[in-house]
Amino acid sequence: MLKGSMDDAAWRAGLPAALRHMLERLADPALRQAPAGRRDLDGDAFLMVNDYATQPAEALRAESHRRYCDVQVMLEGAEQVGWAALAGDPDAAYDAAGDVAYHVPGPVLAWHAFTAGDVFVFAPDDIHLPGVALHRPARVRKLVGKLPWTTLAGDWPPAAG
């Protein structure tokens, strides 16, 4: 997992080229007002504009991915994100079509505040639990770039991490 800021040019400069390119795409001002939904990008990459209400952690499921890494940028609002290193989870059935494995009951998580301008990058070895209410349920608007892991695997972890 990496955490940084869209405002931190030095942090972004230390990232692999494919990740920097995704962050440039996610910085497009038109996405701030775009309707929720999926948009295809170059190759197998895509992004999602998400609008939702945060929830208590107990109402959500931790997840991990195998083919894609998540590049998440908070546009509006705030939430908590839980994180744990994937250490093998025989109870997590993998859905290849959705590229997701849910981890229930969730692992012991480290909690991080996720506020406007923040960036989180979750690799396939990161279990993450997004959408958790920070203080109380609230609306958030977030971008999630899905970057094929094959474009990053040789450059991971980056020196900026």
TrEMBL record:
CC annotations in GO: cytosol
Residue stretches in coiled coil: none
InterPro entries noted in UniProt: NanQ/TabA/YiaL, NanQ/TabA/YiaL_sf
Protein name: YhcH/YjgK/YiaL family protein
